[in-house]
Amino acid sequence: IYKHVVHNMRKTKLLHITLSLIGLSSCAQDLTCADFKIGQFYIPETKEMAKYTIVENDSISEMIPERDSSIKKYIVIREKDTQIEWKNGIANGKPEYEILEWIDDCTYRLTYDSSKSELSEDKKWINENKGIVVSETKIEDNCLYYKATMTTNEGQTISQDGIICKE
After folding, report:
1. Which helix (H) or strand (E) holds 14?
2. Cα–Cα 20 to 30 A to 41, which of 26, 71, 78, 108?
3. Which residues, 6 or more positions from 21, have their beta carbon under 8 angstroms from its beta carbon?
4. What pTM was estimated for this model as a whole?
5. Three-state secondary structure along 102-124?
6. Can you give the three-state secondary structure of 71-104, one letter per residue?
7. What's the pLDDT band for 1 if we cut at 50, 70, 90?
8. Any idea where the domains of the chain sit in the sequence?
């Protein structure tokens, strides 16, 4: 009888654990674009981020600029309409202050905030060309994949694929 009771207890315990795990996984929420509007995130340095696609008139070219190998990831602290970017960690070096203008739930225009810091020539040029439009391409696990696109005043389109993940 003892063996039978112990065996049934094990079955009951295993069934309870299995049902608990099923319950947890069914309660796990899929992330949406709204989950990436406010909070702390990181942008890992990836191969995709190293490549820019440039479309001008009828030609398409790729540009792979030299990257700073000391940067492993960017930390992003995002409020609804602003974000601060740090290289390799909060309070590490000078932050980038950025303004987000939401176009829809999954798309925003990014420009640099000249009221918070002096802008480099590159950042001034981005602002003069109406900023960078960032659009979600997919959400997988805790990461949002995006395409960042800028159309210059001369009609050139520059785009880059990227990823931002919840901490």
Report:
1. helix 2-27
2. 26
3. none
4. 0.77
5. EEECCEEEEEECCCCCCCCHHHH
6. CCEEEEEECCCEEEEEECCCCCCCCEEEEEEEEE
7. low
8. 1-30, 31-166
What are residue 140's phi and psi, to 5 degrees?
A: -135, 130
The angle subtended at Cα 159 by Cα 158 and Cα 160, nearest 5°, is: 140
CATH architecture, domain 31-166:
Beta Barrel (2.40)
**How far apart, in whole angstroms, are the C-alpha atoms of residue 97 and residue 119?**
10
Residue with tokens 């440039």: 54
Q: For 83-138, what is each residue's pLDDT tens digit? A: 999 988 888 888 999 999 999 999 999 999 999 999 999 999 999 999 999 999 99
CB atoms within 10 A of CB 140: 11
Residue 16 scores a pLDDT above 60: no
Tell me the pLDDT tens digit for each residue of 53-91. 889 888 888 888 877 777 778 899 999 899 999 988 888
Burial pattern 58-97, b for ≥16 Cβ within 10 A else e, equals eeeeeeeeeeeeeeebbbbbbeeeebbebbeeeeeeebbb
Q: DSSP code of 34? A: G
* Cα 126 to Cα 122: distance, rounded to the nearest angstrom: 6
| Both structure tokens of 27 | 């309660």
